[in-house]
Design goal:
The chain is an alpha/beta fold and 235 residues long. Helix content is 48%, strand content 14%.
C-alpha cells in the first residue's frame, strides 16, 4: 500500500498516527491513556479514533517488519502460555531460538497434536526462520507426536533432536512476560480473530525491541525511525 493511499484523508500527520500505534503496542497503555497523553501535546483525539488507527495500521506493521528480520538460529525453544479470549483461557504457543529471538506464535483453543502441528507449519513458512536442528519442549505429550508426523510428511528434517530439559526453556518462559504484561491491561479479547491480530503486532514490536531486524535498531529513537522508514515517512 503506497504512503499516499495509506494515510489518505487522515486529519492527523502520519507521525502522530504511528506514534499512537507504536505506543499502544509497546507499552501498557489504554486508548484513554493515549488520549490524555495527546492532550498534553495540544491534540484532541477521541479514543475511538486511536482504536481505529490500531486496527487499520497494525496489520501493515506486522507485514512490513517480517521482510526486515534476521534469520533465527536452528535451536528452538517451544512453550505455551495462556491468554483470555471471550472470558475463556486459550493457548498461546510461542517459540524463540537460543538467543531469545522470536521465531513465531500461534493461538489455539486446543492443546493437542493438531494445534502443535499447525504451530510448527506456520513457523516454518517464514523465510527468516531456520529449520530446527534441535527443539526443546515442555512435557506436553503432543509435541513428539506432532514432530514425528511432520517428519513423515517431509516438512521437518529427519535428524531433529527433541529435548525435554526444563531449565533450557527458561528463555522462552521469560520471553512470555513481555507479551503477557502487554495483553493483561487489555482485559481479554472479544474474539480469537482480534486476539491473533493484536498479538501478532505486539510480537512484531517485541522483535524490533530485541534487535531482530537487519538494522539492529535497539534504542527507542532508532526503533521509531525504523518504523517511520517502514511506512516511508520522515522522522
Amino acid at each position: 500500500m503506497e504512503k499516499q493511499k495509506l494515510f489518505k484523508w487522515k486529519h492527523y500527520q502520519p507521525a502522530i498516527i504511528l506514534l499512537n500505534v507504536r505506543w499502544y503496542l509497546r507499552y501498557n497503555l489504554s486508548f484513554r491513556d493515549l488520549v490524555e497523553m495527546m492532550e498534553e501535546r495540544g491534540l484532541s483525539i477521541a479514543h475511538t479514533t486511536i482504536m481505529r488507527w490500531v486496527h487499520q495500521y497494525v496489520p501493515e506493521l506486522d507485514e512490513r517488519v517480517r521482510h526486515h528480520l534476521k534469520s533465527t538460529n536452528d535451536s528452538w525453544r517451544v512453550d505455551e502460555t495462556y491468554i483470555k479470549v471471550k472470558g475463556k483461557w486459550v493457548y498461546l504457543y510461542r517459540a524463540v531460538d537460543s538467543k531469545g529471538h522470536t521465531i513465531d506464535f500461534y493461538l489455539s483453543e486446543s492443546r493437542d497434536k493438531q494445534a502443535a502441528k499447525r504451530f510448527f507449519k506456520k513457523a516454518l513458512a517464514f523465510s527468516y526462520v531456520s529449520k530446527p536442528r534441535v527443539i526443546t519442549v515442555d512435557k506436553n505429550p503432543a509435541y513428539p507426536i506432532a514432530i514425528q508426523e511432520l517428519k513423515e510428511e517431509k516438512q521437518m528434517p529427519q535428524g531433529i533432536q527433541l529435548r525435554k530439559v526444563k531449565y533450557l526453556n527458561n528463555i522462552v518462559e521469560q520471553d512470555h512476560r513481555f507479551i503477557k504484561k502487554r495483553v493483561y491491561p487489555m482485559l481479554g479479547f472479544k474474539s480469537l480473530r482480534t486476539a491473533k491480530q493484536i498479538i501478532a503486532r505486539i510480537e512484531a514490536m517485541h522483535m524490533i525491541k530485541k534487535g531482530q531486524t537487519l538494522q539492529e535498531e535497539k534504542s527507542v529513537q532508532n526503533q521509531k525511525e525504523f518504523i517511520h522508514r517502514l511506512f516511508e515517512i520522515a522522522s
